[in-house]
Amino acid sequence: AMSAASAAASGSSKKRKDNDGRAADDEAVLPSRLHGVTTGLEEGDLLVKAAATSVDTFSQITRTAKQLAEKEIEALSSEIKQLITANGGTIEPRRKDGRIRLNVGGTVMSIPVSALLHRKMKTTYLSTLLLHFTDQLPKDENNL
């Protein structure tokens, strides 16, 4: 049987995957491959062992920080989606092509959806309002 340290040193691992193909969150970080490194001197080996332990600790800390950051980002994303839908918006634009007709102070403007979806335009308040909150806009007698 191969130890975890020698498995890490040889580059092989048997990580359990979740449904997304990512390593499962409850899986421990593999030990540093430095655990299998020797110098030929007892003092050197002790230093390498201490360094390997430090690398293991660092790996665990960064893994934990990464997991916490991912969970926080997922929670924020969910909260943003809930805010959008709670205010009558849609997550995806209602339209992806054609034109939006908008009555602006009595003047009907025809705005191409492709312009609102342009990479530099789609993050603006105007695009967000017209693409995601169309039903929340006031309408005139012609439903514009």
From TrEMBL:
<feature type="compositionally biased region" description="Low complexity">
    <location>
        <begin position="1"/>
        <end position="12"/>
    </location>
</feature>
<protein>
    <submittedName>
        <fullName>Uncharacterized protein</fullName>
    </submittedName>
</protein>
<feature type="region of interest" description="Disordered">
    <location>
        <begin position="1"/>
        <end position="28"/>
    </location>
</feature>
